[in-house]
Hints:
The protein is 35% helix and 22% strand. By secondary structure, the protein is an alpha/beta fold. Strand 1 (24-28), helix 2 and strand 2 (48-52) form a beta-alpha-beta unit. Helix 3 packs parallel to helix 4. It is globular and about 35 Å long. The structure holds S-adenosylmethionine (SAM).
Amino acid sequence: MKQSISMHEGVILYNFIREHNIKTVVETGIYHGTSSAFILDAIGETGHLTSIDPDLSHLIEPHRHNWTIMEARSQDVLETALKVVPDMFFHDSRHDYETMMFEYKMAYKYGVQFIGSHDINHPGIKSAWQEFINDYNIKIHYTSPKFAIGEI
Ligand SMILES: C[S@@+](CC[C@H](N)C(=O)[O-])C[C@H]1O[C@@H](n2cnc3c(N)ncnc32)[C@H](O)[C@@H]1O
């Protein structure tokens, strides 16, 4: 089931971005644009957000000048988007093991400092997040059963 991040999670994400002076973010999974809106407010006018999603039919957040939207699957464009090496990567696209691990590893490969993820645990699905943070020694700044932010 597709679901936007909650108000509570959005506030945590917003505060984290502000506290760490994060200015550039790449995210996967736009849907209504809820996480996008929190990120855009946090990075401010001088920041830049790139968001990736193959289906924009549910987007309600109005467009802003510092927001690049890539209408595509992360598997096809994330590597290109990460070449600018944003301060933070945020995953909220397809929550299967392969997609999540692909995105996390891509952020690691390009030297992104901060990594956030929604839906880190799904009943019956091997947690890519748990494996990633263990294997890559990720420092955890915030975690709940659903949502986490770490530092690579
Ligand atoms: C949980 S929703 C995102 C919610 C959004 N972050 C928010 O807070 O409103 C998941 C989104 O991932 C998108 N998606 C599915 N597969 C994808 C892929 N391979 N790459 C990028 N986005 C994908 C879906 O189209 C959907 O809009």
